[in-house]
Specification:
2 copies of one chain form a homodimer. Chain A is 27% helix and 28% strand. The first copy, chain A, is of the alpha+beta class and 652 residues long. The first copy, chain A, has 5 domains: 168 residues, MoaB/Mog-like domain (Molybdenum Cofactor Biosythetic Enzyme, Chain A, 3-Layer(aba) Sandwich), CATH 3.40.980.10; 59 residues, Molybdopterin biosynthesis moea protein, domain 2; 80 residues, Beta Complex (Molybdopterin biosynthesis moeA protein, domain 3), CATH 2.170.190.11; 84 residues, Beta-clip (Beta Barrel); 187 residues, 3-Layer(aba) Sandwich (D-Maltodextrin-Binding Protein, domain 2), CATH 3.40.190. In chain A, strands 31, 32, 33, 34, 35, 36, 37 and 38 form an 8-stranded mixed sheet that branches. A 6-stranded mixed sheet of chain A has the order 16-13-17-21-20-18, sandwiched between helices. In chain A, strand 8 and strand 9 form a beta hairpin. In chain A, helix 5 runs parallel beside helix 8 and helix 6 crosses helix 7. The longest helix of chain A has 20 residues. The N terminus of chain A is likely disordered. At the A-B interface, strand 11, helix 3, helix 4, strand 15 and helix 5 of A face strand 11, helix 3, helix 4, strand 15 and helix 5 of B. Chains A, B: Keywords: Magnesium, Metal-binding, Molybdenum, Molybdenum cofactor biosynthesis, Transferase.
Chain lengths: 652, 652
Amino acid sequence: MSKSRNFFLENIPLDEAWSRFITAMEEVWAWDEMPGEEVAVDEALGRVTAKPVWAELSSPAYHASAMDGYAVRSTDTIGAMETAPKRLAIGPAGPATYVDTGDPIPAWADAVIMIEQTQHIDEPDGGESIEIHAGVAPWTAVRPMGEDMVATELVLPANHLLKPVDLGALAGCGHAFVNVRRKPRVAVIPTGTELVTVEQARRCGLKSGDIIEYNSLVLSSQVRQWGGIPTRYPVVPDDYELIKATVLEAAAEHDLVLVNAGSSAGSEDFTSSIVVELGKLLVHGVAVRPGHPVILGMIAGFNRPVIGIPGYPVSCALTGETFVEPLISHWLGLPPREQPRMQASITRKLLSPIGEDETVRVTVGRVGERAVAAPLSRGAGVITSLVRADGIVRIPRFSEGVEAGQEVTVELYRTPAEVERTLVHIGSHDLCLDLLAQYLADSGRRFTSANAGSLGGLMALKRGDAHLAGAHLLDPATGDYNVSYIQQYLPGLPVVLLTFMHRQQGLIVPPGNPKGIGGLADLTREGLRFVNRQRGAGTRVLLDYHLGKLGIAPQQILGYKREEYTHMAVAVAVQSGLADCGLGIAAAARALELDFIPLEMERYDLVIPRIHYESDLLRPLLELINGQELRRAVAELPGYDTSHMGEIAGQW
Amino acid sequence: MSKSRNFFLENIPLDEAWSRFITAMEEVWAWDEMPGEEVAVDEALGRVTAKPVWAELSSPAYHASAMDGYAVRSTDTIGAMETAPKRLAIGPAGPATYVDTGDPIPAWADAVIMIEQTQHIDEPDGGESIEIHAGVAPWTAVRPMGEDMVATELVLPANHLLKPVDLGALAGCGHAFVNVRRKPRVAVIPTGTELVTVEQARRCGLKSGDIIEYNSLVLSSQVRQWGGIPTRYPVVPDDYELIKATVLEAAAEHDLVLVNAGSSAGSEDFTSSIVVELGKLLVHGVAVRPGHPVILGMIAGFNRPVIGIPGYPVSCALTGETFVEPLISHWLGLPPREQPRMQASITRKLLSPIGEDETVRVTVGRVGERAVAAPLSRGAGVITSLVRADGIVRIPRFSEGVEAGQEVTVELYRTPAEVERTLVHIGSHDLCLDLLAQYLADSGRRFTSANAGSLGGLMALKRGDAHLAGAHLLDPATGDYNVSYIQQYLPGLPVVLLTFMHRQQGLIVPPGNPKGIGGLADLTREGLRFVNRQRGAGTRVLLDYHLGKLGIAPQQILGYKREEYTHMAVAVAVQSGLADCGLGIAAAARALELDFIPLEMERYDLVIPRIHYESDLLRPLLELINGQELRRAVAELPGYDTSHMGEIAGQW
């Protein structure tokens, strides 16, 4: 089968694309703010006022006592002193009458004396009085009518997002209903013959080529979060007429139509042609990455905007943030959402193409005086990069990228305070770090981890990019771990070398070990495909050490140059049949139900600069490492030995 | 009727109160995090994971093409060059097969060549080929199985607040349901015989002593906003047994019971006795202000915490923030909510009692280089002080207050970015400022206004506390407005004096003018009660000027010393019969349907330091003042003349 492109994508700068879109909407009133609708005040939380609201009643609606006490005429109290108390008879017409907090004060009164400042007297004649020891000024302890709100005064402006106290104010000045902007209705139409629902996937399993459809779930949730009402359509197969009919039906009933995906220029990318047929194609291709194949258009008959949203999950979610959120905010009369920003130093060099605005997901933490931003996967298909992101960095289209160590602005998905209590780990990855993160969360610490291999972690410590680095670097000369590497790579940096655990390294092979692999010597066997770890990984160092002992040269091994970055990626390569074996930890083999040939128990340490080791921030981590709870949890995992956990293996 | 206190309130420091509360809950497991419940992933937005979630399926579930193009064996492409292209036949078993983005690559292939980098050839034998001009490395344009998530790997930790992309990741790795913490159920019980609903108030009007009940609306909305499920009970009258029965019923069905109010120590404050009878009273009175009369307790039979919440609306809302929110967050496994903070200079001295933590509501803006925080009303009954607040300042209990100009920490209710685009007005108040605020909002500017009188405004400019000050200060010597005051009070500060409008000042009298007041000469009449404005108010200056011309001394006027701070407060005093007349603007009289005796059209200017006048921040304000839209809106209000709007009345 051969295919060709229908046409090529444009590469329109974001601001130009956005401005074309707005202009087209303005022409047909689709850029107007949403009309108002009356809702009960007790259902108006989070809604936005469509008009200014004026008080209907004053609050308080009368002159009210601010205390439990006695209403009096201030003139009657003049001259009362500790040495010469005054006595006021209690009676409904004065000169003293009891009032509770909030009670109206009688018309003849102009002040209230707190009950604690009065003495109650039973008079011989059966009457009652109070005795007071000080005079009071007029209006003491009185809340004048309208103190809070005066009828006819402005209480809330238009375009105000209603908080709990706002609702109280509305009810307090006599409003049972409030006029709020109608919620924008947004149709979310997933298209694609290859798509299955997660329910189908669970029921019937996934065939090769099946993709679980979840972009419409993300888009619908975004719409709901931003204040709109989503309609999530069932998946429409790649059929031009079916998609067209669905778009048309959706346009009739919604303020905005989102079509996902088919927004590119491939053979089954129908969205642009459909938009051309049904109305006007304004933009096809925006100079952003991820998220280039975006379509902006108008459906003619209903004058409704339509957005074709790219299919890669990260592109999809970011397109929602870029185009859908500002539209909803505008319709609701709200200012554009503003993320908190912070300056941070980027931990590694990022190349970015000239001509496209690029969005890079990062984790962020403060290491000593510096805030550091560590880039996550830039793959548009890696939704977990957004799940784990603490924020994003934008590389503008007239820039070729950023250098390692360069200052960048991070738009935070978290509060700056969360960043302050984040422990930044860069180094070798191990499943136990996930456990550690879980336990640390209970102590109010966040733990972010970037996999850079053991040596990469030491280099990160040298640059001041991380609080700690997990490492398991075997020194072939001594048989010890990490010590000589620290001496070589971190001279002059005071660090503590803390043992986390020992773990089983070995060969990961398919279930049943079909090739009958017995050890590393078998790797040179004709046709046996190995999968390796990247340079600088402790596991690769371990491999090279043992190959050296066995006298095996790298070029004797098929696949020695095929590098993966994690134990799990090695296990996946074996599971999927791309490789016959790889070196990795027992836990990764167990996780994917693969077989495992043990090679060596290796020590996995945490390398921690002393300045962080002694900091408040890391104290909970040290408590966990030295306590019993985490030790028990790690010991339960297959292939781990915790008998040396918490021991200091060296310090400099 | 005489009353006495049941007992006095304690004054327990906040941290001690909170620790007693937690300890009691820990004893009976009521401090435990909420148990999990399964919800569909598409209903889980904003919920919190109760357990870590591990991937059930890998994503992608197979090696997938990352592009539209041809799957190939990389070894087949070696040697292809621009000058020596290679030709690969198209066929299902290779060496080239078309794949769409997302398609699985065939088992024999290990790379994909983008369609744009191939040339399609129709072979003479009827077959098809592609021609390529460069070799590709293994795994080019292939997303390996598990690139995003590997089955069995951790996807989300426990206690994670679910965002839209998280839901996508959950579905993407095979989860149709997710285990989330049950939402805490919170009973909100309003008590008080004086309370009416806003619906009742609208239907039957308010009798003197009636109070519209809205605290339960605020508390319920807070609970919902923080992630709980509120049950808002109908108002329970002040009847010990009724309230007790309601609390007991609520405790059986909720995780937390809130009783509002009756939490103080007055004659009808039953809550503490009820808590004593039903369980344990832990705290009665916390050393905070507002919000002192708080009750913390446990209901014994059901082991449910109960909070008695004070009745003043500000105390009520702040008690929600102080005690209810952290409880709900803890139950949901979330860290305590963290407001963004900023340092600001407080605009006026605040005295605060030793021994109590005080919460002061403030508006915040940045004036030049300084952030300034202007305190709002400290009255616990003034809910609008919370509505208008940009944040709060806490004055700790071991402090006597803060001096004007002192640096304080503001916990912001807004983002720092909102603060940056805030125009700070301090000075004379006028209804037109509300209009101005409305129009400015459309230009992306916030406008906060503090009423300090005309002279107070000039002093604020002198201190650098405001961007602009509204002023209408008549110079008796010249008959001109503001000029001589600016020369006297702001020497050396370059300012622009911009005319906003002219407005009608006059005497505000009850409808029908029952006392037959004709002008200022009548103010000396026997028994006629006047209400004055505060010193420094332009209206007071105007009064004194005319009194001087008429030869009337202040002491000849009954009520000259009774000061109100706004035109509306003067109008309210007249409307409620506390005064027979006052001096103020026509608009205030009209608003409350009072009669008005015109005295003089006065000029109301905006005094703007040149540095702000020329700033970006104020540009939208100048555009409005010089445009037609605002002019028309002001001209429509009774008593305003806009013919000089936008004229520069002086500059220095």
